[in-house]
């Protein structure tokens, strides 16, 4: 995974709450067996609407999505994260994310940043007033900054470290293979197994 | 201080715990399907890894399979490739799979319990958010993304931050015609789609204890619609009786029951939050909007967004009514339906089919709509056919299909057309969920069946 330390770019205001993963990418786009090419399904229901924010020339180059509350609710499809990344987004900012979506994003290196709704509103206003506003998201200092505004955000130390080092979780867990093996030895035999097949 | 049930199960599965790091949790059962696994198997191959515990893993085909002509090759070549990829991956890595045509093929959350693989005290994961269903057995079960699927395949563990705990106490007695689907829809309307975010919910109280296992699964299934990754119910005699005799029930059943009987929330345990709901007052509940929290009693009217104080919720309601093509103040029972969908991991089990079949017995569905009946698994389909339920549905004018997720998520050909309106026993009424431009009202199996007969949203009491 690519290291994430700081990203600077322009931002896209998505003034909607409860943007669920079926809005981010509908099920009919989930048939691919690869991790790439999902940008064509991103927000597909809205992409034909000329008023939709991603269709406006001034927001086309945005790399930071600023969304309403409860972004990413619904299905566990990691394709939602891939669609955003394949499209070119590096960061999503919201006042609240659904648990599974947030977990998926942080595994895959799409930084999801939680700030207060009032800070989201202020950021929306700033980027709508000037779409060329440069927005920086700094994981080192845990801040979002634009114009003269600096908004701190919270992220746990472990996840921050993993993202800044670009480390993959499986690689880290495999280092604990001994702990897993010893846990398995003490595991109760009452738990079921799928093999051999019974019944 | 005592522990909650979720805390007990968590503690029993900690492989490694270190300050400032997520706990490494052991996973007892990993369910996989065709849509969220191919990239995970690719990841294993790229890194030269194997599946650590194939015997704790099981696959089936559900999300992207047709419910018609299942004896023929899948018509959509992209869907066919996805299903073929799952079959090839399972063969390569030694994973048990139940494919189309097999009696244990079906919606992954119907298959686990019917095989007896879902048992109390387990940790269960699947690359599907409705994995919370298995919590009905007193298991800690939750949905994961594809990166986590790969992690579990490779290590049989997951690094996880400890969740907070929420109790939802449902006391009282349900009236006739009111089901567990109405309980969970009412809960979501009460706490909101983000209300359970960061929590594991434990459903408690006399109304929950009175539910059958299948009804409990319906409640736990939709925990995710309340924002909670997992929801569970303490196991009891109802749970033990359900598991007994299933193919993978414990061979030393008494020892298992002795262990399962320790799985409850201690009387001195503290939940982070408690929510109360009175079952006596509940009525059949349906959604009118585009998220599962936008619901109301069937006997009420489409709400007026102007009456909603919170500006965010008001805006969401305004947008929802536009999308749904509904006017504030319209009685919900006047809403005409085009398609009735009976099925899914929420309500595609045998009890759901029995309840709906009893309503349509000897009657005809309205000529203005179609009704799709999609059993949750091939085994449920066979069981229903043995009881003659298929005939009741077909005689009423409904379509009797093969098992799969079908119209719940509109990934296979079972979809709504633009502007078409469904009464659906599934779990999500998101914009376009059941087909681009489709409009979904979430309902119980009883409401689905009564609606099919009358043509407008209805309960059996309206017949």
Protein described:
The complex is a heterodimer of chains A (199) and B (463). Helix content of chain A is 31%, strand content 16%. Chain A has 199 residues and is of the alpha/beta class. Chain B is an alpha/beta fold and 463 residues long. Chain B is built from 16 helices and 19 strands. In chain B, α6 runs parallel beside α8 and α13 packs across α15. Chains A and B meet through α3, α6 and α7 of A and α2, α3, α5, α10 and α11 of B.
Quick structural summary:
The complex is a heterodimer of chains A (199) and B (463). By secondary structure, chain A is of the alpha/beta class. Chain A has helices spanning 21-24, 79-87, 99-108, 117-129, 157-165, 169-174, 177-186; strands at residues 6-9, 11-14, 64-67, 91-94, 111-114, 135-138, 143-146, 149-152.
Beta strand % of chain A: 15-25%
Instruction: Tell me the number of helical segments of chain A per DSSP (H or I, 4 or more residues long).
Output: 7
- Pick out the low-confidence regions of chain A: none
Radius of gyration of chain A: 19 Å
Give, in spatial order, the strands making up the sheet with the most strands of chain A. 1-6-7-8
Helix fraction of chain B, binned, reads: 25-40%
């Amino acid at each position: 995974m690519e290291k994430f330390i700081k990203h600077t770019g322009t931002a896209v205001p998505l003034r909607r709450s409860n943007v669920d993963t079926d809005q981010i990418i509908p099920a009919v786009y989930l048939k691919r067996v690869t991790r790439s090419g999902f940008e064509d399904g991103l927000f597909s229901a809205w992409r034909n609407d000329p008023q939709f924010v991603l269709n406006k020339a001034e927001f086309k180059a945005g790399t930071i999505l600023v969304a309403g509350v409860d972004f990413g609710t619904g299905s566990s499809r990691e394709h939602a994260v891939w669609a955003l990344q394949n499209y070119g987004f590096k960061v999503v900012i919201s006042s609240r994310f659904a648990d599974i979506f947030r977990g998926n994003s942080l595994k895959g290196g799409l930084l999801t940043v939680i700030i207060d709704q009032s800070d989201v509103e202020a950021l929306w206003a700033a980027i709508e007033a000037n779409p060329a506003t440069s927005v920086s998201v700094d994981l080192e200092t845990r801040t979002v900054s634009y114009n003269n505004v600096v908004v701190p955000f919270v992220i746990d130390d472990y996840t921050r470290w993993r993202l800044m080092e670009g480390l993959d979780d499986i690689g880290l867990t495999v280092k604990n293979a001994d702990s897993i093996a010893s846990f398995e030895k003490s595991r109760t035999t009452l738990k079921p197994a799928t093999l051999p097949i019974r019944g | 201080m005592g522990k909650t049930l979720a805390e007990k199960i968590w503690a029993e599965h900690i492989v490694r715990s270190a300050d400032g790091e997520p706990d490494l949790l052991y996973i007892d059962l990993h369910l996989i399907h065709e849509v969220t696994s191919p990239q995970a198997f690719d990841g294993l191959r790229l890194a030269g890894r194997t599946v650590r515990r194939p015997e704790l893993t099981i696959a089936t085909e559900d999300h992207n399979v047709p419910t018609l002509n299942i004896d023929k090759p899948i018509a959509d070549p992209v869907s066919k490739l996805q299903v073929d990829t799952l079959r090839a991956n399972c063969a390569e890595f030694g994973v048990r799979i139940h494919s189309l045509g097999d009696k244990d093929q079906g919606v992954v959350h119907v298959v686990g319990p019917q095989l007896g693989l879902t048992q109390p005290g387990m940790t269960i994961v699947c690359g599907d958010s409705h994995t919370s269903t298995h919590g009905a057995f007193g298991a800690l079960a939750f949905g994961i993304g594809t990166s986590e699927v790969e992690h579990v395949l490779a290590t049989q563990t997951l690094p996880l931050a400890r969740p907070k705990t929420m109790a939802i106490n449902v006391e009282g007695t349900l009236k006739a015609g009111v089901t567990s689907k109405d309980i969970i829809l009412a809960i979501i309307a009460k706490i909101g789609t983000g209300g359970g975010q960061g929590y594991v919910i434990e459903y408690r109280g006399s109304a929950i204890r009175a539910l059958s296992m299948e009804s409990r699964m319906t409640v736990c299934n939709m925990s995710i619609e309340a924002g909670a990754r997992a929801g569970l119910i303490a196991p009891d005699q109802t749970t033990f009786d359900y598991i007994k005799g299933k193919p993978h029930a414990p061979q030393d059943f008494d020892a298992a029951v002795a262990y399962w009987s320790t799985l409850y929330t201690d009387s001195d345990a503290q939940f982070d939050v408690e929510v109360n709901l009175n079952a006596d007052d509940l009525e059949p509940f349906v959604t009118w909007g585009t998220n599962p929290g936008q619901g109301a009693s069937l006997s009420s009217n489409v709400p007026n967004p102007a009456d909603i104080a919170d500006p965010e919720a008001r805006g969401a309601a305004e947008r929802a009514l536009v999308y749904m093509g509904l006017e504030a103040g319209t009685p919900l029972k006047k809403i005409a339906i085009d398609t009735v969908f009976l099925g899914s991991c929420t309500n595609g089990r045998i009890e759901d089919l029995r309840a709906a079949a009893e309503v349509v017995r000897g009657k005809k569905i309205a000529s203005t709509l179609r009704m799709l009946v999609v059993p949750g698994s091939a085994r449920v389909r066979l069981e229903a056919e043995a009881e003659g339920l298929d005939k009741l549905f077909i005689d009423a004018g409904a379509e009797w299909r093969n098992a799969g997720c079908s119209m719940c998520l509109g990934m296979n050909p079972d979809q709504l057309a633009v502007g078409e309106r469904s009464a659906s026993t599934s779990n999500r009424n998101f914009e376009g969920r059941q087909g681009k431009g489709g409009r979904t009202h979430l309902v119980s199996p009883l409401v689905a069946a009564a609606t099919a007969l009358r043509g407008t949203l209805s309960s059996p009491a309206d017949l």
